[in-house]
């Protein structure tokens, strides 16, 4: 029986710049950065501080895949489905993201169920940061 989701993959163009964006601009923690052999791909995962049950995998298709499969996956960079993130201080997170130079598509807005904002990563993938109302 399927029990839980543990990883979601984000396709990236460059391992180092993706890792720097997620750790430096978003404040995520690096969970894993392992070479899969000499000159081979790297297994890189990150997650928000304190989250131990879920990780984003930063995967460079050019190093992991070959031929048409690599080309198809590379074409999905910046086109992946929106990921929803949880916040306990959306106004503070907005200021931090803006100061870090993160592209904000939609600033903080009030909604019936709470507040949210939408931003993009360095490749154009969209993220919805949400702060739910208490209760």
UniProtKB/TrEMBL annotation:
InterPro entries: Glyas_Bleomycin-R_OHBP_Dase, Glyas_Fos-R_dOase_dom, VOC_core. Gene3D superfamilies: 2,3-Dihydroxybiphenyl 1,2-Dioxygenase, domain 1. PANTHER family: GLYOXALASE/BLEOMYCIN RESISTANCE PROTEIN/DIOXYGENASE, GLYOXALASE_BLEOMYCIN RESISTANCE PROTEIN_DIOXYGENASE. It comes from Archangium lansingense. Coiled coil: none annotated. Pfam families: Glyoxalase. Residues 4-132 form the VOC domain. It comes from the Bacteria. Transmembrane segments: none annotated. This is VOC family protein.
